[in-house]
Write a structure and sequence with these properties.
Layout lengths: L6 H17 L5 H6 L10 H17 L18 H11 L10 H14 L2 H13 L4 E4 L15 E5 L2 E8 L10 E7 L10 E7 L5 E5 L10 E11 L3 E2 L5 H17 L6 H8 L13 H29 L6 H25 L9 H16 L6 H12 L25
Parallel strand pairs: 1-4
Antiparallel strand pairs: 2-3, 3-7, 4-5, 5-8, 6-7
Bound molecules: flavin-adenine dinucleotide (FAD).
Flavin-adenine dinucleotide (FAD) binds next to β1 and α12.
Length: 414
């Protein structure tokens, strides 16, 4: 970001820069840089988590973690702008935020809005220090885009609830201490009305976490099974059957975290386009290449200003609107298009997966692809923009009656 700093911000930036220079894990910089496109260069997930936790702990101890959170919850009560200044100075080390993104970015604002004061004071500081990792158990095999279709059930019992069902795509559940879970408490109410939100200790009896092995060989997501898990009523967030409202708080923070970012990779592609290949050709000499670069430059710049707009809205204490959906919609597909173009520019070399540069482009391409799904797919974001920003008529719906009568979608063919 290149907004001119106010004098107070200049001092803040200098302090942050100096502290980062003295304390960041510089010896791990090369590996951390490779994480930019969701790569996993560490020898094991254990090593990556240890490095990330160590950096988070150092920031927390020195007062540089979760800057906008109130002091009593482990933050410093600073402004969104100061937070962004710190992230800019953090540079590549900000990639180490990964394991804490769900807890700090989406879970914590939900706890701040709905947990009791005692719970906030006990749960938020360990989240800020990286000691506790949280996951988000929303999606199910039959409920993704249509999140209100969750079928994991909670039935009341003495002192709390018994929860049974299955969640899926739960990022980081295998190393999480806690998770927030959206479950159905009344199947006779309409789809969005009979849901309740809880936070759950992931070590509870009856929870099993099964990692899903990805094409890349890593296991980022999990299936989480609840088999008659006891959840105390004190761990309910919001009122019984009003969990949809609570989930919207989580989702709006998720979309903001994911949407307030600019597409990655333009600098890399620009550099690649200006390099003369072994055949003596320099891609940027071609008018077609220049036109594409110009188009992406315009998009990337436009999105950077979109982020500034989101920041100014937050500074005014307001909630950003459509720009968040636009940010993710345009950003994710642009990242993917830039990566695909880079691979084309490399020609046959683009198939040599052991080549570092090629590997980076492949990671960037898959990063764009997953970013187009997480936190709302492209199609869902287009629907949101059509209905809420452009005021177009809503899609016809056949699920307005009691949830019990809503048919279960047949399994996909193939
Ligand atoms: C990287 C990543 C991390 C994730 N982490 C988590 C996590 O930690 N916790 C969690 O709960 N979930 C997580 N998810 C799941 C994510 O929220 C879902 O993948 C997403 O909501 C889409 O749901 P789905 O996969 O069930 O696809 P579906 O909802 O089945 O959609 C299938 C296709 O149909 C399209 N579609 C669906 N409805 C409509 C409509 N009304 N109009 C037009 N097209 C439509 C979609 O765009 C998509 O192309 C993660 C996903 C990814 C990719």
């Amino acid at each position: 970001m290149t907004l001119d700093d106010l004098p107070a911000h200049e001092t803040f930036r200098a302090e942050a820069r100096d502290w980062i220079r003295r304390h960041a894990p510089w010896d791990r910089l090369a590996k951390i840089r490779q994480m930019r496109f969701a790569g996993q260069p560490f020898a094991s997930e254990h090593e990556w988590l240890a490095v990330a936790r160590d950096w988070q702990r150092k920031k927390f101890d020195a007062g540089w973690a979760c800057l906008v959170w109130p002091r009593e919850y482990g933050g410093r009560g600073l402004t969104p702008t100061e937070n962004v200044i710190f992230q800019e100075e953090e540079g590549p080390f900000a990639e180490l935020f990964g394991p804490f993104m769900i807890g700090q970015g989406f879970g914590a604002p939900t706890l701040m809005a709905y947990a009791s004061e005692a719970q906030k004071r006990s749960l938020l500081p360990p989240l800020a220090s990286g000691e506790a990792i949280w996951c988000q158990m929303f999606s199910e095999p039959g409920a993704g885009s249509d999140l209100a279709g969750v079928r994991t059930r909670a039935t009341p019992c003495d002192g709390g609830w018994r929860v049974s069902g299955q969640k899926v795509w739960t990022s980081g559940a295998h190393h999480s201490e806690w998770g927030i879970a959206l479950v159905r408490t009344d199947a006779d109410a309409a789809k969005h009305k009979g849901l309740t939100m809880f936070f759950v200790n992931m070590r509870s009896h009856g929870i099993s976490v099964r990692p899903i092995r990805q094409l890349s060989g890593t296991s980022h997501f999990n299936e989480v099974f609840f088999d008659d898990v006891f959840v105390p009523d004190e761990q309910r967030l919001g009122r019984v059957d009003e969990g949809w409202k609570v989930a919207l708080t989580t989702l709006s923070n998720e979309r903001m975290t994911l949407g307030a970012s600019t597409p990655v990779g333009f600098e890399e592609i620009f550099e690649l386009a200006t390099r003369t290949g072994e055949d003596g050709c320099t891609p940027i000499d071609s008018e077609d290449v220049r036109l594409r670069l110009a188009e992406w430059y315009a998009k990337v710049t436009g999105m950077r200003f979109g982020v500034y707009r989101i920041l100014s809205t937050l500074e005014r204490g307001e909630q950003p609107g459509a720009e968040v959906a636009v940010g993710k919609l345009v950003g994710a597909s642009t990242t993917q298009a830039i990566a695909a173009f880079g691979l084309d520019l490399l020609g046959a070399r683009g198939l040599a997966i052991e080549d570092d540069e090629v590997q980076q482009l492949h990671s960037m391409f898959s990063f764009g692809a997953i970013h187009r799904l997480e936190g709302g797919t492209d199609e869902v974001l287009r629907n949101i923009l059509a209905e809420r920003a452009l005021g177009l008529p809503a899609e016809p719906r056949a699920d307005r009656g009691p949830f019990r009568d809503v048919p279960i979608a047949p399994p996909a063919l193939g």
